[in-house]
Amino acid sequence: MEENGQLHFSDDPLLPGLNEACSLIETGDFESALIIFDELLNKSPESPGVESGYRITRFWLNRISDIADIPDGKDTADFLLEEWQVFLEYSRSNNLLLTHPFHAIEKYIHYTAGENYKLAFQNADNPTDNIDSILNLAICFIKLGEYNLTIDTLEYVRSTVTANPVVLALLGEAYFQCRDIPKSLLLFREAFFIDPTKIELDLLSAEPIMQLKEIAIEEKSGWGDIKEWIPVFGHITDIFYVRRHLTFQTVDAITKDIYNLERTYQTMSIDRVRGTNTMPRLINKYLWLFDFYKEQSYNFENLTDIRSRLIEIDKKLFIPYFKNIKL
Q1: I need a labelling partner for 327 at 20 to 30 A (CA). Which of 104, 111, 141, 265 fits?
Q2: pLDDT (tens digit per residue) in 43-56
Q3: How many domains is the chain partitioned into structurally?
Q4: Nearest CA-CA partner of 309 in 299, 298, 326, 322
Q5: What is the per-residue pLDDT across 287-324, written as a single tens digit (0 to 9) for each?
Q6: How far apart (Å, rounded) are the C-alpha atoms in residues 327 and 95?
Q7: Which of 90, 138, 134 is nearest to 110 (CA)?
Q8: List of residues 6+ apart from 280 with CB closer than 8 A
Q9: What residues make up the domain containing 279?
């Protein structure tokens, strides 16, 4: 078992070596770590922790020379994160994700990438010119559990970049981990309203998102991108209970979006609907409009029309829902 990042089984003679090798991985000393894993493999080739450590160390040791040839700063950081995506696929196919060496290399790669992004920003005239690099830095902070730094970084970005679903979702994750739940839920709701497809669920571990993901998979697998259903179930379950005051300009934009989505939706067969994101997007827009007319600018006629239309679109979902909703 693991405790504070270290493996502990007093009766296992391999563990001191495993822990030492993992500590070396965290500092980037792959050559020394590989020597230890090689020795441990000779003693116990069947040990999962030893095999995973050897595979992981060898993978990154093969890239050390490439990394050394790249200038420090953004180029090195970008290369590390690009190779990390390759490594993730390698790790999934070899069952390495839940191992101690995997967590050690995850820490090293994201710490090193983060330091290189910070170096790049120190040398940049206007850091906000490169939003992708700032987002990558925020991802590094999240992977390292540095949630306050994530917030500082992304709030700085948000002062110049508005309505970016990735920024809002990562901020929601960071605020949730810092236990500012209302702000977190508001940010998640906004992010998933703007464009769920741009959000990487693998970067989010906040309990509300994990819960909504499970519900969406159970209820709507095969009906478009599961991420598109997260805001729908966020409304229906009232998990996304924190909402902002809508301007009439926003309401007008939502109404126009509904008109355009309806024109598309009504020309599609049910089989075609299943293969697109039109249904969850249309439903989500209607639900935002429903909130507006119920909580902010009460209009019984509009509420009745929206309720009827949502039931027409998805009886299974909305007949039970509206039984508990008073207009």
Answers
A1: 265
A2: 887 777 899 999 99
A3: 1
A4: 322
A5: 999 999 999 999 999 999 999 999 999 999 999 999 98
A6: 51
A7: 138
A8: 220, 223, 224, 225, 228, 229, 231, 232
A9: 248-323
